[in-house]
Amino acid sequence: xxxxxxxxxxxxxxxxxxxxxxxxxxxxKENCVTTCVGKSFQTFSCSHFRLLTVSGLHPDDxxxxxxxxxxxxxxxxxxxxxxxxxxxxxxxYIGHNAKVTxxxxxGRHLISVDEExxxxxxxxxxxxxxxEIPFQNDSFKISCVMHPLTxxxxxxxxxxQGGLQIWNIRHGKLIHAFCGxxxxxxxxxxxxxxxxxxxxxxxxxxxxxxxxVDRVLMEFTQEWGIVTGISFRTDGLTMMATxxxxxxxxxxxxxxxxxxSTLTAHHDCINTLxxxxxxxxxxxxxxxNSLKFWIFDKLDGTPRLLRYREGxxxxxxSIRYHGLKGDCILSAGEDSSLRIFSTIxxxxxxxxxxxxxxxxxxKKLSKLQDDYRIMPPISSFTSETTREKHWxxxxxxxxxxxxxxxxxxxxxxxxxxxxxxxxxxxxxRKDFKTFATCLNMTHCGNFVIIGYSSGEVERFNVQSxxxxxxxxxxxxxxxxxxxxxDNLNQVVISGGVDCKLKFWNFKTKExxxxxxxxxxxxxxxxIRGHRESSMLCVxxxxxxxxxxxxxxxxxxxxxxGHTAPITDACFSPDSRWLITSSMDCTIKTWDxxxxxxxxxxxxxxxxxxxxxxxxGDFLATAHVNFLGIYLWANKSxxxxxxxxxxxxxxxxxxxxxxxxxxxxxxxxxxDRLNLIKIEKEEEEExxxxxxxxxxxxxxxxxxxxxxxxxxxAKWKNLLSLDIIKKRNKPKEAFKxxxxxxxxxxTVAGLEFAFDIENNTQDEDHSxxxxxxxxxxxxxFGIILKKSYxxxxxxxxxxxxxxxxxxxxxxxxxSLAPLGGGSINLMEKFLDMIIEMLNTNINFxxxxxxxxxxxxxxxxxxCENRALIEKIEEVEIAQNKGWSAIxxxxxxxIGVVSNLRNYC
Length: 903
Prior knowledge:
By secondary structure, the chain is mainly beta. It holds the Pfam family Utp21.
């Protein structure tokens, strides 16, 4: 495992060769499409193609998908999984001994077929087998299954031998064997008409068959070969669509029995073709890693592309971060396209198009029409953000081509310029073997420096495409493998197969000779640089990595550890780490200051290109034979990591590539419930049971100080109430109410009003009243007196905790004799404080209440001997409770302060 990097997620995956499934989600009130991407599947909303959910990682690649209105079913090997909401395992069906190839939800049952043509009918809820129907692969190898509408308990089964049978799955009986076809049946699709189905064959024929009378109603033939999909419009038009294995779609008018139009929808085999119910919308997916929605709103009845999601249809060759935010990754692939992948949301992914010799002519063609002007794949590119609003900000070189192309990140398209020296243009060219090998754009965004296989190093203006300078004559005797320029456009550095690293003046008018040459021990493979630190990484063909300070022209570090050709390298944003990848399937991280290897991990496939984000939070990698871009999170930004030196010759531990979801949300089927057994008892056996309903006690230990859960506003400002009241004093005095005659009773308040209630006294009631109690106690005083009698002050403390600061101040001031209390009551209050200090509960409240008490009654305390003795008891309790904590806190602070001197 890696100490620094952790799997985050994969970008750029949309679909593969497994047909997608469409279902209506009542909760969202829209259709959703589920596509397969290797070991997991993902669900998109059809309204905006927004990614909704991603499933967990299966033990192996998914072999087929199906869905009903409740669950999504996926088959992996011989096991079938039922998923709720697309990411939560609900059922697991075990019973097949071979790989499951077909799934068909059928009411409360699920039908599955494996490679041995064993058909099983499962009870969807109990996960039990209802019935099994075996077939022989030699005579009837099942190739497709469907349920004809209105045919109760019956399914239609097609075979690779061309046979077609209808079975009653309730009794396991063959109802009828139809007249066979002389070709494999690839697809069976229900038409809007009852008893009529569409049959797609491997020889390109499409047959409309009436099941009730076993008669062929219509027969069509598409010239593109295998029929991979059939779908019928259900919005009132008699139209049928059929797809082929080369990305073509044909639209048929069933009334006139002819082709309406054709469409080149994808670059590869179409595996999903589905008209939306009662809508002029067509959904397609393909092996070219794309998902597309077509709408029929043209006057001629042909469709147009409504929305799409797509990634590379061939493996990426080079990836680089663009911009300082680190949210965009530029990727060039084998499909000759340049794409932008967003690390924030995949809805922001954009294709800049495919490289073309004549962009305007190619633009007039259909998006997917065969174009002979397409250029070879981009082998390398460079970009800068300085001038991207003014002119093209990306320059790319292509495999075995001498010209370089420009691209605009701001306009999201290919530029108009083709950068090429004059001697290589068509009317002057004599050497047809030379091609561009490396390039680098200057920091200002005005120039690009390009190296060629003939040894030349040329500089072009990016805005105009004009050739500005050449370095040397030539710069190297053989292939130029890398070029670089400094931050101030003063130095150009080039390295070649001739084992030389040369330094040139950026402005070549004064001298066209290199002012510095460094001899390497072997041929240079490529060059990577870090402008802010003036460091250059030079990778040699003998798997050696050199770090050079190009200001002093000295080799500052030398790293040896890879056992195969190094494919790419990059610096971390602070230039402290150098990360390299190799064909030995490893990625190594070298610490430049210490000159140690500090991290390494191995993957199943070699990394062909990598890039570190400008913020240092992610490492992006692209791998051989994989279509996606994989993100690895830098754990050192979020937690402390103890890094130690690693022996470069030691074996690296293997890590899996990131899944479509984040690593924290990864739902691994193998690890969960021993291949997903959803029994609570087995969950508890895997580890310690964690009670999520656990609540911490009010006091963990009586030796620890326990704070109350009150907000600071309840106790922190008790000593400052006088200042607060003075500050909040109104600027204008309150208006005094008008006085009524002494014999007329009035109601207290600001508004003048008479008391009209009947205040007549009872005749039996005496006019004379005697004081029954000498003390005029407040509510808190009464509760405090009762608490003293029971020796339980919890009610008194609880009452104070419910009061606001002003009332707390009033209650404590009222304890004195002048406030209606007594000396005895003040002693009882101090007893309550002693109780709080001894139990260490509500510690901050005890401190605050005691401070207010001392401030309010200092004169009374000094005049009374009994209160002085109580205060001495309070002092003992205070010292006893705080001293132990105080010593430990001071000790901890001292240790930490001392350790900082060694960090």
